[in-house]
Design goal:
By secondary structure, this protein is mostly helical. It has a domain of 46 residues. The protein contains 5 helices and no strands. Helix 4 packs antiparallel against helix 5. The longest helix has 24 residues. Keywords: Plasmid.
């Protein structure tokens, strides 16, 4: 009776797979990171809201669908707030004349 193949990769098999020594240790090299584009928070929130809205539209009316739509609305609001907070024309709030500090 033979034993099932082991899922572990032996050291001699790494050369056959052409895996760098740094990669074997779990260290990402610059070459590994090159070409990876990080999405902005606004892009991720907008994409998630769109996906959630599509899922909600496939459901029948009810509390679960309403909850998904509410979460999508909050994500879109958060994306707008993020865009606003990063805008160059952002002004501090003006509640009226400031009192002199003592």
């Amino acid at each position: 009776m033979t034993s099932p193949p082991s899922k572990k990769i032996r050291a001699e098999q790494y050369s056959a797979l052409e895996i760098s020594p740094q990669r074997r240790r779990g260290i990402a090299t610059m070459a590994d990171r090159r070409g990876f584009k990080q999405l902005t928070l606004q892009d991720r929130l907008t994409a998630w809201a769109k996906k959630t809205r599509e899922q909600a539209n496939e459901l029948e009316p009810g509390p679960y669908r309403d909850a998904l739509l509410q979460k999508a609305d909050k994500a879109e609001s958060a994306a707008r707030f993020d865009a606003w907070s990063r805008s160059s024309g952002l002004q501090p709030p003006t509640d009226g004349p400031r009192r002199p500090t003592k």
